Amino acid sequence: MIKFIGTDLDGTLLNSYSKISTSNVQAIRDAVNSGIVFAICSGRTLHSVNKFFEKDLKIPGYRVVLNGAVVVNAKGKRIIDHPLDHDVIVEILKRAEFSKFKIVLDGLNDTYIYDPNHHWNTYFEGMGRHHFKAHSVNELMKLNDQKDLNIYKVCFSCPPKRLHELQKKLELFTALPITISRSGNDYFEINGQDVTKLSALQHISEYETIPMNSFMCFGDYGNDLDMIKEAGYGVAMANAIDKVKDVAWKVTDTNNQDGVATMIRRVLNKEFD
Length: 273
Hints:
The chain is α/β, with parallel strands linked by helices. The protein is built from 10 helices and 14 strands. The protein has helices spanning about 10-15, 20-35, 45-55, 85-95, 135-145, 165-170, 195-210, 225-230, 240-245, 260-270, and strands spanning about 5, 35-40, 60-65, 70, 80, 100-105, 110-115, 130-135, 155, 180-185, 185-190, 215-220, 235, 250. The strands form 2 sheets. Strands 5-4-3-2-1-12-13-14 form an 8-stranded mixed β-sheet, with helices on both faces. A 6-stranded mixed β-sheet has the order 8-7-6-9-11-10. The protein is globular, with a radius of gyration of 18 Å.
């Protein structure tokens, strides 16, 4: 029996316009009203995820943010907080300093962007009051020196023609105590060691005393892979990469066809009990 539903945002719950459809909103509300525990599981910051709860969903739920580095429960209590070690960030930035890749540092709510090509948007949205420009890697270093500022994620991206070069650079980081995941074709994210969406959900499983085999999780890309593989009901979107589809329990419609709502309706109709 499905007692918990967790969904990725970009490419999953959100359509191509970064909106949650009316159908998805209603299905999630109906699931929560039936007693199912709900979570958004995203690489985004807490501020970004909170907006969808406050403006769209308007229901209680877990915020699994920054790829599981932070988890906030439905009552607003932070039950997981795993920032990257400052020395590890220094090492990453030193090794990447002269590569001219786009580098993004994610704090809890704020995002700091160094872009040698001066395209300051992040992978999921443009500039806003929680986005700050850094004009050099050295500026990012200085940010990291602030002892009261926690950085939870370091992101790298590049133009498609430099993808192989970026992948080679990331191979130099593998000896560090980190987890590297891929959230887009040319977008890579670095968290602390063993920090993943799955590890966060496993913690929630213990916290809620709901076994993982009662979890339904939705996703589309590499940073969702383990979550989809290990959940009792791992659901890949039709627009998901093949690796995610290969480990999924089922494939639903695309993110532009309300694939999350389609599957939740089947849950509420007790098709899988």
